[in-house]
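Before the break, one more example. Copy the sequence into your notebook; we will annotate it together after we see the structure.
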Amino acid sequence: MEQSGGTARPAVAVTGMRCLIDLDGAGRFGWRLVASNGRAVAVSVASYASHARCRAAFLWLCGEHADMAGGIQHSSEGGGWVWVLWDATGRHLARSARMYERHATCRSSYERFRGMVPELATAGPELWGET
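Here is what the structure looks like once it is written out:
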């Protein structure tokens, strides 16, 4: 833990993170959070009718993260673990970008994501590659 102003907070690096908006074959948009090493960290579960709505959904998730629940579950694709984040109604909003072999590794990824979400909301244009 890193100490800042007398309170403990997780040491999470958001430097170099990018949120990319992808267009699928049906003409709908989804976001993908990518780390500085190029690996996808998280993806949207829902798809959106426009680029602007997709971006707004990601920013909403960052702003409302404290009211969301999440957890680790077996992948529906079988053979591994994924983490999922959902809102108060139970609607899935985000998930791990990949499946993990080990529960502990998946949990660690989930905890890192939850730790960085508050900082992503204030990251600014560099998050979107606009600098």
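The chain has a mean pLDDT of 86. The beta strands are 2-4, 7-9, 18-23, 29-34, 40-44, 69-74, 81-86, 92-96. Try to locate both features in your own notes.
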